[in-house]
Write a structure and sequence with these properties.
about 325 residues; alpha+beta; Hypothetical 12.0 Kda Protein In Nam8-gar1 Intergenic Region, Chain: A; Arc Repressor Mutant, subunit A; Alpha-Beta Plaits; large ribosomal subunit rRNA binding; Sdo1/SBDS; 5.8S rRNA binding; ribosome biogenesis
Length: about 325
C-alpha cells in the first residue's frame, strides 16, 4: 500500500484553466480565478499571483505535465518555459466555471445599465431614468430581438423546404425589400467592453423607443472672432454654379447662422472685444459635425469646449 505524503501531492483548488492549442497538442496552465483577466488588463503584473504552479500541462485535472520534447516541438527549441506560459496566458482560451461566468456576466450587465442610465433622459422632462427602468426597457428589446430571430429562422427553414417564399406575397408579387435595419439589442456579453456595449444599447433604445428616451445633451462653450462670423458659408467644391462651371458656390447664411443651427438651446451669448462667445446645448450626434465645421470654416479662429458631456436633471 502506497502512502500518499503531502510532499508528493499537488492539489489545485479554486482553479481556472487557460488552454492553447499549438500544433496537434493542447497545452494548459493552472491559474487563480479572476487573476487572468487582471493580468491581461495590466492590473496584475506578478505571475506568481496568477499561476497556481509555474508548469505547462497537457491535462491539469489529471496532473499530466507537458514533456519537454512536446513543448519544444510545438513552441520551438529555444523557447523557455516562462515564454511558453506567457504565450498561453496571452493567446489562450480561459475556462471558467458556470458560477464565475454568471457573476462576470452580471457584473458587465450592471455596468452597461449604469452607463446607459447616465446618458439617456426623458425627452419631455430631460430627467434621467432609474437603472431599473433602463434594465426593463433593454429586456423588452432583447425579447423582441430574439422573437424576430426566431421568425427569421422559421422563414429560412420554410424557404429551404420549398413550402413558402419569403420574397413574395400571396399574389406572387415580389415584396419590397426592407430598408436599412434598425439597431438591435440581444443582451450583454463578456467578449466586449461595457462601454462599447452601452453605446450599442443606447442606439437600440433611441431607435425603438420602448420608453421615451433621448441622448442627454452636451453643454458647450463656442468662441469665435467676430469678423469670421459674418462670412458666408461656402458650398463644397465640385458643385456647379449657375453658369454650369465647377467652383465654390456660396450657400445662404453666415458662419454664425450655421453654428446656431446646431445649438438646440442658447444659455448665454456675448461679445467681448473682437471675440464672440456662446454657451449652449447640443445633441451628442451633432458635436463632431459642429466641431469639424468650426475647425474648417474659421481656420483656427474658433474653438469648441465641452463643459458637460451629459446634461441631465434629477429630483
Amino acid at each position: 500500500m502506497v502512502i500518499q505524503q503531502p510532499s508528493n501531492q499537488i492539489k489545485l483548488t479554486n482553479v481556472s484553466l487557460v488552454r492553447l492549442k499549438k500544433g496537434k497538442k493542447r497545452f494548459e496552465v493552472a491559474c487563480y480565478k479572476n487573476k487572468v483577466l487582471e493580468w491581461r488588463s495590466g492590473i496584475e503584473t506578478d505571475l506568481d499571483n496568477v499561476l497556481q504552479i509555474p508548469n505547462v500541462f497537457l491535462n491539469v485535472s489529471k496532473g499530466q505535465t507537458a514533456p519537454t520534447a512536446e513543448l519544444q516541438k510545438a513552441f520551438g527549441k529555444d523557447t523557455s518555459v516562462n515564454d511558453i506560459i506567457l504565450e498561453i496566458l496571452k493567446k489562450g482560451e480561459m475556462q471558467v466555471g458556470e458560477k464565475e461566468r454568471s457573476a462576470q456576466l452580471e457584473r458587465v450587465h450592471n455596468e452597461v445599465v449604469s452607463i446607459v442610465a447616465s446618458k439617456l433622459v426623458d425627452p419631455r422632462t430631460k430627467k434621467v431614468y432609474t437603472t431599473g427602468m433602463i434594465d426593463k426597457a433593454l429586456d423588452m428589446l432583447s425579447s423582441q430581438a430574439h422573437q424576430l430571430q426566431e421568425k427569421e429562422k422559421e422563414k429560412k427553414d420554410a424557404a429551404a423546404s420549398g413550402t413558402a417564399s419569403p420574397a413574395t406575397g400571396e399574389s406572387g408579387e415580389a415584396k419590397p425589400q426592407p430598408t436599412k435595419s434598425l439597431p438591435i439589442w440581444t443582451g450583454v456579453s463578456t467578449n466586449k467592453s461595457a462601454k462599447s456595449q452601452a453605446l450599442e444599447a443606447m442606439k437600440a433604445l433611441v431607435a425603438h423607443q420602448p420608453i421615451p428616451v433621448a441622448r442627454a445633451r452636451m453643454r458647450l462653450r463656442i468662441t469665435c472672432t467676430t469678423n469670421v462670423l459674418k462670412q458666408a458659408v461656402k458650398a463644397p467644391k465640385g458643385e456647379a454654379n449657375k453658369d454650369g462651371e465647377e467652383g465654390e458656390k456660396k450657400a445662404p447664411g453666415t458662419v454664425k447662422d450655421k453654428i446656431l443651427s446646431f445649438v438646440e438651446q442658447v444659455e448665454s451669448q456675448d461679445v467681448m472685444g473682437q471675440e464672440w462667445e456662446l454657451v449652449g446645448f447640443v445633441e451628442p450626434g451633432a458635436f463632431k459635425i459642429l466641431s469639424d465645421f468650426i475647425g474648417s470654416e474659421t481656420k483656427g479662429q474658433g474653438r469648441v469646449e465641452v463643459l458637460d458631456m451629459a446634461v441631465t436633471h434629477e429630483d
